[in-house]
Sequence to fold (287 residues):
Amino acid sequence: MNETATIVDVTAEDFEQQVLEESRQRPVVTDFWAAWCGPCQSLMPVLERLAEEYAGAFRLARVNTDEQQQLAADWGVRGLPTVKVFRHGEVVEEFTGAQPESAIRPLIDNHLPRASDATVEQAEAERAAGRPEEALALLRPVAEAEPDNTRLQLLLIELLADTGRADEAEAAIDGLPVNLASDPRVERLRARVTLARIAGEGPGEATIERRLAEDGDDLEARYRRGARAALAGDHETALADFLHILQRDRTFAEDGGRKGLLAVFELLGNEGELVNRYRSRLFAALH
Fold:
């Protein structure tokens, strides 16, 4: 199989450059396959034909899993063929098994460069600068015009949560396509909205800190502070507050301590030293 800029064979040594970095410019459809796999042999020509038809709008990256076993394991490949669509350095779509062309086209089309990309990047910059309201004002009209743009819709939900519009964010999540229902990004958004709802209620920061200074077992104050800390990126404070609530009163806010811990775990991708440490403490508190 000849390599072109549109179709490339990828190894562990050049995966970051050929897939992750390239996906910042255009979608990279990555096909994990093997020579002995019958469905792989029927899917590959479909992907190659689409790559040629789209004339460079996306890249097809082929990973021979017999030769790149560790690379396949690193990306969680459990069956063949597995296809993962990368955009902006992360997996945005995936499927396992041979699929018809009619099912593959939308997965590519959803992530092709659009005129709205510049607005999305500007909104992301505003958000990073601590101006979520300005970011939301920029993004909302574009999101309404492009309801099928997954990247844009997910960012809109994040901004709705950031600005305390939990009900609107939840409605937007419920309106996402069915194929995104179990997407890890959507699960993280649900957790973010849960925390945003908690954070948006109750007294202001100064009152909460005063109440905790007077009474460290003020569970409502800890509940609000924990949610606000999680949204601000202070995950350890959030986890400590929710664990404290769990240990003191399982009935508070309908098991709010445990639910808060799980929401923060979700924000953190359910992995890492902090998650492992507090998951052990959660287990100990429950048992």
The first helix runs from residue 15 to 21. The beta strands are 7-9, 28-33, 59-64, 82-87, 90-96. The chain has a mean pLDDT of 93.
